[in-house]
Design brief:
Length: 141
């Protein structure tokens, strides 16, 4: 069950060191993600999609923190410093929840070949949902 994170970490490390195309462009590997057929191809494309949505989440999260800092600094928000601390705490808790939830999805599918795609889809969906939440909660574009 703990093998998928290690495999994905190894793939990500190799992608960075081996010059593999990134961000959904698997053409250098001969993989067309729109037509991915094998498990390996789907896993690689899902990994790219997760990287993309994770980067987007990190950018939105940083934007929310910057907004809270700016409003605290200019005095337009008396509780923004406290809100910033709470957001950091909430994000850490959310990551723990997301990971545990997606491990449950993986375990539910452990007897079949859909376990990796199911977990990846869970991670992608939850990360997209969190990005949307942060945009809404902190009125970000």
């Amino acid at each position: 069950m703990k093998m998928l994170p290690r495999v994905l970490a190894s793939l990500a490390l190799c992608a960075g060191l081996c010059g593999v195309a990134h961000a959904g462009d698997r053409s250098a590997d001969g993989i067309d993600c729109a037509q991915a057929t094998g498990g390996y191809e789907r896993d690689m494309c899902d990994s790219d999609r997760l990287d993309d949505v994770d980067r987007e989440l990190n950018a939105v999260y940083a934007q929310a923190l910057d907004e809270l800092k700016a409003q605290a600094a200019d005095g337009s928000c008396s509780r923004c410093a406290a809100a910033e601390q709470q957001l950091v705490k909430a994000q850490r808790i959310w990551i723990t929840l997301r990971d545990a939830d997606c491990e449950a999805v993986y375990a539910f599918n452990a007897d079949g070949t859909s376990r990796n795609p199911a977990k990846m889809q869970c991670l992608i969906t939850q990360t997209r949902d969190r990005t949307r939440q942060l945009r809404e909660f902190y009125e970000l574009l």
